[in-house]
Amino acid sequence: MGPLIGDWLAGVRELAVLDQGLLALAWAVALLLAVSLGFAAVALLLRLHNFELERRHQDRVAAWEPPMLDVLAGAAPDEALLVRVGAADAELFVSFLHGYARRLQGEERATVKRLARPYLQEFAKRVGRGSAGRRGHAVQVLAELGMPEHADAVASALDDRSDSVAMIAARGLFRRGYEESFPLVLGQLPRFTLWSRSFLSSVLARGGHGAAPHLRATLADSAASPLVRAVAADALRLLNDLESASIAAGILEAGAQKDRELVAACVRLLRHLGHEGHVRLLRPLVIAADPVIRAAAVGALGAIGGPREVPLLQDLLDDVAYWVSLEAARGLMKLGAAHTLERLARSHGPWAVLARQVLSE
Amino acid sequence: MIGAAAAHVAGVLLDGFNLVVIAYFVLLNGVYLTMSLFAFVSLRRYASRMRTVDVAELMATAGMPPVTLLAPAYNEEATCVEAIKSLLTLRYPSYDIIVVNDGSTDGTLAALEGAFELVEAARAPVATIPTADVRAVLRSRRHPNLWVIDKCNGGKADALNAGLNYCRTPLFCAMDADSLLEPDALTRIVRAFLEDSTTVAAGGVIRIVNGCRVRSGIVEEVGLPDNRLARIQVLEYLRSFLSGRMGWDALDATLIISGAFGMFQRSVVTEAGGYATDTVGEDMELVVRIHRYCLEQRRPYRVTFVPDPVAWTECPESLRVLGRQRDRWQRGLVESLWRHRVMLLNPRYGKVGMLAFPYFCFLEVFGPIIEGLGYLTFLLAVVLGRASMPYVLAFLAVAFAFGIALSFAAVGLEELSFRRYPRVRDLLRLLGVAITENLGYRQLSTYWRIRGMVAKLRGASAWGVMERKGFKATGAGPA
To answer: CATH assignment of A275-361?
Structure first.
């Protein structure tokens, strides 16, 4: 091999005497081939490394699973499992427990949390340090396995420089119903304005009825941003919080609120939790310029209105926006005016298909 | 005297063009290398973030928006039932499937009717994008979320528009009726819309199903195809998606979302006018138009690429069919860029106009012509004695080595991130393909793209036919 390379280099030098440009190209080829070999070596080494990691993971899980099931069943003490966890396997072990904790409830979940406790301090130190992925993982583990002991660490992640990490903390705190931190999370909502509103409201609704008073306060707070209040209204709707209907009605009644999202969220809330007394607030909105508000109001009118609303809904079938017409047709069905739809369905008019669609829903 | 002067001028022109070829080569590979580096950083960051994503928990979240899958089908009798069965098993809380039978002349509709018990149903259109006549709207008795729109033939874009007219969900996923989505692909791609509500379009990864074992529409075992041409395409797709699209996404200048798997905000696409029916590159044209529309409307928006949701698709295994596909892709590229040429180097269109557009115009559109002519002019220069043979060979060796380096980098990125090919043998075969594709395949690919350009200039608008083997024939193991 050595003489071969020597000959090759000698050849290159000989050519180089003739032409410096050729030498540069030769070096470029050599460099690129070396880089290629480097990439190939990295790919192969990564493969070996991942094989090794996977093998180790499988070995450990195979060793931990039987005693884990015994501990969960109360047939063995914690030590039966913990003695099998080496110092180098702590992270792997916590991941193993994390998988269980996500699926378990009640006493079994408490057992998993107890098993994880000795290892969580290391994760608490990682909050606020390292890459966003590493910080997020630490917060996620603590929120799942370390509450309420590590609630402060998780809550501190609400101020993390990464929105994703802060969201992991918010979701962790709400999912596990850690009520003390709800106001903190709600205070951080403005930083999540880029996130989908329906997603945010479902995150907040995971807090359960313990979150309702805080959400009501946010909805009623005229100093809060309309977007945050709209998210709170949607979360209250998901929680079926009856008390919030009067707050939503109050917002609509004041009439000063022009924000499309907040008005639509309040109307949606009334659709689910309002009563006939709220109908007078909805009627002016069915002629709103914004089709989103119009559709929401028509839907709510059909849901909580009485037979008196049928003529209005019939008129609204002719709205230029499909969604308004659809809500009007659905409203007519709910209010027992199916005959109107049946007549439309038999016609050749523009809403015949829509009427047939709603009749078959 | 005049002859000598003309020969001199021709020689100078030849040298000049060869310099253009060299500059093109340096620029193109420089861009590819830069994209690979961007992709490396992005993928590492993404893989790290993925540790914190629990797909099952996401799916349990009430805030997941309902989605409609739009699958246009034209003569897909061999694969459509299997593919739709796989769509019915997707893990997503709420979704409709709208298969648009675009006037198939084979047994596509009969196959669907037989497999899913379709009956006529009332469904009012939501939008009014003009399309060829819709003959019937059918719904499955067995699967209430499966709808079939039977319409006269109008092409893929027309079929997508018909589906879009009937789409009632805020998001829709455009895909091919013969693509297989991974069970959690929808959840993974919808994440982009949850985390940033300004997201209007997101593309996923397309991988090659040839060589994989498929059962009931689900890819059970991933493997490399035995067919050499298909194997090369596996590597091409890795390069294209993991290096190219990931790199452009890092620059926030995604200009292509594959028609085989992309998620869009319905309202934006309908407002922008739906799919263009007079181009064979309707997928790219739509994305370029979305950029243009949002920028002109001064609307905050994001078009992104998400590297972990996967759609598996069958690739051509014959030179004839592959050539037609590449020819069409090149025509689609030219048509999309020409239609929106106002964006080229126009600061009003931000990074898309100043970075992505020039790249696709100068390097992807004119690249094949420069490369193809380069082979000829280099040879001519040697024959005329204006360039030394060792020089030309050394230059070709650099090009060859660059090609290998970029392909090896793509394989490295795959290893770093998703590791879909579990067998070491497959990894080594991919590395082998990275070496051999440079001789023959690369030149053929250049030829097909030039042919596409020429066809475009001649006004061709044909799609060409893709020959499907069907998923049951795919893979080494039993299906």
So the answer is: 1.25.10.10
